[in-house]
Amino acid sequence: MKSYMLIGILAALPAAALAQAVPSSTYLMKAGASDLFERQSGMVMANSRNPKIKSFADMMVRDHAQSTAEVKTAARASHLAVKPPRLNAMQARNLVALRNARGEARDHLYVQQQQAAHQDALKLQQGYAQAGRAAPLRRVAGKIVPVVQHHIEMLSAM
To answer: What is the C-alpha separation between 17 and 2, in angstroms, rounded?
Structure first.
């Protein structure tokens, strides 16, 4: 089958049909890393001179602390162990770059990083909400999706 035909077939499938069951351990690892990155980068931005950026960063620290707590509670309800979160390599590099940037350049970099991070988080949460194996985690992922979408809308307005 030619690759363009395969692409056409895949594009015609509904998103739910393309969602693959993500192992719960993978979801927990990625969700934990995502929240950790959001909280740490938000703390870096605590001294931004831009009130909109500072307010958004403060909200990221609060919202992602809450989603971490909700995911941990759902994991316990699913009889799953939650390991301490670790940033992936890209998140670690992004955090270093953010710490090294200054002034408006840092504000701009923060927004760019947040846009990309939230797109990744949205895909993760939507995917697990649709096809995750542990029901309590699926419910929490579904609850987190509109929060992440709201964050994306806010970022688009900056």
So the answer is: 21
**pTM for the whole thing?**
0.85
CA distances from residue 149 to 1, 14, 17, 60, 67 in whole angstroms, order as listed: 37, 20, 21, 13, 14
CATH of the domain at 39: 1.20.1260.10
Of 68, 42, 62, 63, whose CA–CA distance to 54 is shortest?
A: 42
**Measured distance CA(149)–CA(144) in Å, rounded:** 9
Contacts of 54 (CB under 8 A, 6+ apart): 45, 46, 47, 48
CA angle 55, 59, 63 (to 5 degrees): 175
Kindly give, in sequence order, each residue whose CB lies less than 8 Å from that of residue 107, ignoring residues fewer than 6 positions away.
45, 48, 50, 53
In the predicted structure, residue 32 carries a pLDDT above the cut 50:
yes
Does a structural domain hold residue 1?
no
Instruction: Quote the domain boundaries for residue 49.
Output: 22-157
The beta strands (E) that lie in the chain are given as: none
